[in-house]
Amino acid sequence: MSTSLAPAVNAALATVIDPELRRPITELGMVDSVEISDDGAVHLSVLLTIAGCPLRDTITKDSEAALLGVPGVTAVDVELKVMTQAQRDALKEQLRGPGGQRGIPFNQPGSLTKVFAVASGKGGVGKSSVTVNLACSLAAQGLRVGIVDADVYGFSVPALMGITQAPTRVDDMILPPVAYGVKVISIGMFVTGNQPVAWRGPMLHRALEQFLTDVYFGDLDALFLDLPPGTGDIAISVAQLLPKAEILVVTTPQAAAADVAERAGAIATQTGQTVAGVIENMSHLEMPDGGRMELFGSGGGQLLTERLSATTGTPVPLLGQIPLDILLREGGDSGQPIVLGRPETPAAAALAGIADKLASRPRGLTGISLGLQPR
Ligand SMILES: Nc1ncnc2c1ncn2[C@@H]1O[C@H](COP(=O)(O)OP(=O)(O)OP(=O)(O)O)[C@@H](O)[C@H]1O
Ligand SMILES: [Mg+2]
């Protein structure tokens, strides 16, 4: 009896995914032992990475559900243990590669991750809302997606994604919380309450660097960086740390906003980065009578693409125009991005359309070196 159940029990365990590492627990060395009694009762011993693992309940419940789904299994008892240092080291080596490779994985020669830095000239044009919606849209299509909230002073991504969970630390490796299939890291997860982050430029750079080196994202298809507005320290740090990152410039339809946004995009010519495209947000408001109210004027997105095409010398596309929608704002406030909560709305459709365009961009293998030279 016990041996005949073993293959099915093992297959069921292979469907249990570690919520943070996003890999089957069987592949991560987390299954310590499985005992199957003659009466069909299963005793499973699971090794957690750290003692205080916040997701211990999830792992327990998922393991129980998977095992109870096996015909013949009558009862399940899950025992949680903690990995030894040697087991943790082996896991880290498995995740990071031989020697526990450090450095920024997205800059490795073989990295196929598309990195998008979402920038704007002015604040409040919708960068963070666009970032989370694009990320969720791609994750819903089955892509592996991450977000780095690079707006260190004005972090907002955890709230927009409804994340209250803190990252798990496994020695020097940080495991990012996952929401809607997206791995997210933000300075907001490291401060208590609503404390401000009062740091100067070098600290900002170090924080960003640590997010990119110490946080285990695994192999991603796309990584989004939600930048603060303008062309300050962080935009320069992103260019230095991730020279391959392509810039997505968010603007409103207002001509004056496009003027300011042009500077955020034009920084690419100084840093050797590519502008992947322009996203016009808050384009218009659909009226109950079917008409459109252009609250912020019109043409800003188009104007910006023309100007950036001229300054960068390469065609910069207008990737989409997102209308104003109260549901978009409400989705942000409630931590459920509109592309998932209200996909039928025109705003969600516009965002999903932009995500599709990004998904169909070829994954580039060649790293572009930073064009900045000391004088
Ligand atoms: N298309 C839209 N329709 C309705 N509300 C929107 C839209 N886009 C953004 N908003 C709202 O506008 C506000 C600013 O958006 P968001 O925080 O995404 O902008 P931001 O560019 O990231 O701002 P900051 O520069 O402060 O980081 C938010 O309250 C958001 O919900
Ligand atoms: Mg923002």
Are there runs of 5+ residues with pLDDT below 50, and where? 365-372
Task: Report how far apart the termini are.
Answer: 76 Å
Note the run of SSEs as H and E: HEEHEHEHEHEEEEHEHEHEEHEHHH
Associated small molecules: adenosine-5'-triphosphate, magnesium ion
- Can you identify the CATH class of the largest domain? Alpha Beta
Count of strand segments:
14
CATH homologous superfamily of the largest domain? P-loop containing nucleotide triphosphate hydrolases
- Tally of distinct domains: 2
Label the structural class.
Answer: alpha/beta
Shape: globular
For this structure, the CATH topology of the largest domain is: Rossmann fold
Helix content: 25-40%
In words, what does this structure look like?
Helix 8 links the parallel strand 11 and strand 12. The protein contains 12 helices and 14 strands. Helix content is 36%, strand content 21%. The protein starts with a helix and ends in a 16-residue tail after the last helix. The chain has 2 domains: 6-96, 2-Layer Sandwich (GMP Synthetase, Chain A, domain 3); 109-359, Rossmann fold, CATH 3.40.50. With 375 residues, the chain is an alpha/beta fold. Mean pLDDT is 89; it is low at 365-372. The chain has helices spanning 2-13, 56-68, 85-96, 127-140, 157-160, 201-214, 233-241, 255-271, 300-312, 326-334, 338-341, 346-359, and strands at residues 31-36, 41-48, 75-82, 114-119, 145-149, 168-170, 173-175, 178-179, 182-186, 222-226, 246-251, 274-286, 292-293, 318-324. Helix 4 packs across helix 12. Adenosine-5'-triphosphate binds at residues 120, 123-129, 151, 154, 156, 229, 281-282, 322, 324-325, 328-329, 332, 347.
